């Protein structure tokens, strides 16, 4: 039976020498790297449990156990991410990194884009944006000292200006909630997303109604229309990209629509 998780653990166990793991390596060894018993000892689990895990038996490692395996096996960040993906578990280290906001270099990338562009984190807080986005979304992105981080959903459902700025607001609001549900996935019941969702449902009957529908659609972009108070009707084509090293961040660009 194909067992990619167990095969991955075994491959990395066999390539890690006892010396690299801080163990004595004396005597003849049939295993090129660590024995199962040695890895089990370092991970503080039973050899039987580790054997079952490598064999694909009915055992389910916790996120904490996977983190310990990644540490002992000295996995790179990419290897660690692959390990958690194979086990279908959330990496607590990845979530900790996601709380740090946008990296400094990303703000420069956004500023270099001529069209309105901004970066959203997992809560859909705007963590970086350029001047063009600030001019288009002034009620949302005009952040004052001491004000909370601008959140796209709070703007959509709490700011009166949103209903005048965004053409076809009811349809866009329904799609936005369905996109958000798809985006947050299994994180929806975890802090800080759970608090955000509860607050939106408390403060906006529209959000509460749309959230209970449990509709899910992908955030694929497409035509976006605005009625700007100074610039009048504006039409854009939205493009959304996920960042390779920070899957919790999304780069959103509003490109001017080409005339036929």
From TrEMBL:
| N-terminal signal peptide | none
Tell me the superkingdom of the source: Bacteria
What's a Gene Ontology MF term here?
DNA binding
Q: Where are the transmembrane segments?
A: none
Q: Which residues form the HTH cro/C1-type domain?
A: 33-80
Protein name listed in UniProt: Helix-turn-helix domain-containing protein
**From which source organism is this entry?**
Rugamonas rubra
Source organism phylogeny: Bacteria, Pseudomonadati, Pseudomonadota, Betaproteobacteria, Burkholderiales
């Amino acid at each position: 039976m194909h067992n990619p998780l167990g095969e991955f653990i075994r491959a990395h166990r066999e390539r890690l020498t006892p010396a690299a793991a801080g163990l004595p390596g004396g005597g003849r060894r049939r295993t090129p790297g660590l024995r199962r018993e040695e890895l089990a000892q370092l991970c503080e689990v039973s050899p039987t449990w580790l054997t079952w895990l490598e064999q694909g038996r009915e055992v389910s490692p916790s996120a904490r156990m996977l983190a310990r395996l990644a540490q002992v096996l000295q996995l790179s960040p990419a290897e660690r991410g692959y390990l958690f993906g194979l086990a279908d578990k959330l990496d607590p280290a990845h979530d900790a990194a996601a709380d740090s906001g946008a990296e400094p270099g990303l703000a420069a990338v956004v500023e270099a884009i001529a069209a309105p562009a901004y970066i959203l984190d997992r809560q859909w807080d705007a963590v970086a944006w350029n001047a063009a986005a600030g001019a288009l979304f002034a009620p949302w992105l005009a952040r004052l000292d001491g004000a909370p981080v601008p959140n796209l959903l709070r703007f959509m459902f709490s700011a009166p200006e949103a209903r005048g700025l965004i053409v076809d607001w009811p349809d866009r609001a329904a799609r936005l909630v369905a996109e958000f549900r798809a985006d947050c996935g299994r994180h929806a019941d975890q802090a800080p997303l759970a608090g955000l969702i509860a607050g939106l449902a408390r403060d906006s009957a529209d959000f509460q109604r749309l959230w209970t529908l449990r509709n899910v659609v992908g955030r694929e972009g497409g035509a976006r229309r605005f009625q700007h108070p100074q610039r009048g009707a504006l039409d854009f084509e939205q493009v959304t990209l996920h960042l390779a090293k920070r899957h919790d961040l999304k780069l959103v660009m509003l490109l001017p629509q080409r005339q036929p």
